[in-house]
Amino acid sequence: MKSLFHLALFTIGISLSTHIAKGWPIDPTHGFIDLPFNESFYHIQKPFDLPIDHRYSFISGVHRLWVYSTDSPLSRNSPTKPRTEIIISGYNYSSGVWQFEAYGYVPCGTSGVCIMQVFGSDPPHATTLMLRVYNGTLTYYQGPVIVPNIYDKWFKLNVIHDVEKSKVKVYIDGVLRYEGSGRGGAFHYFKCGVYAQNDDSYYMESRWKKIRVLKKCD
Ligand SMILES: *[C@@H]1O[C@H](CO)[C@@H](O)[C@H](O)[C@H]1NC(C)=O
Ligand SMILES: *[C@@H]1O[C@H](CO)[C@@H](O)[C@H](O)[C@H]1NC(C)=O
Ligand SMILES: *[C@@H]1O[C@H](CO)[C@@H](O)[C@H](O)[C@H]1NC(C)=O
């Protein structure tokens, strides 16, 4: 009887540690409050000299954003590279623990591009987090790798930013894939779409659905 009990404990111990080691999917939104989200909480940034529907569509709940490496920047005098991005301007934040959740999709061929950002940091940086795609690999800036083989499939993305603790966490399909430091700053918001970086492909596209913004309960 006693040994059976020990065996049971042992088995629980094993399954708990495999659970953590293999990164069993969890729901990262536990303990967070869903905030209202509709078109009044975001707008689209796109090449300044083009109408929005030349670089963005929203059909059946799917936001599709695309841009070419030869496109103009978002404003006439901007020195930045081309982009088409959803900017979540309705939830600027400077404190607290915030979360972005969405399903993302990157078609094969899109490379050298930022697909999601946590905007705002201390100088000289402008961002706290960039998720980029290089040749099918999703990376934190230019590294480390978050997940390989991101092309042509929907993935669930959760990004958590703890301002006071200066921490960021990235979950793919409910599994924690990156945990690192923030970069300071007192003004933040989330963005997703395509923003050309180094070694950008001629055509860049990402798709997004079921976008949610959440805030941790106090
Ligand atoms: C968006 O959500 C806000 C807050 O719930 C609401 O007041 C507003 O009417 C909604 N706007 C649209 C266009 O649905
Ligand atoms: C968020 O900040 C932007 C400036 O980047 C501003 O245009 C916008 O109105 C702010 N949003 C809210 C809800 O205050
Ligand atoms: C992506 O692939 C291209 C072509 O194979 C290669 O030239 C380039 O260096 C790769 N870029 C990265 C960041 O690995």
Automatic annotation (TrEMBL):
SUPFAM superfamilies named among the record's database cross-references: Concanavalin A-like lectins/glucanases
Domain Alginate lyase, chain residue ranges per copy: 41-213
Keywords: Signal
Signal peptide: 1-23
Domain of life: Eukaryota
Residues annotated as transmembrane: none
Name under which the protein is recorded: Alginate lyase 2 domain-containing protein
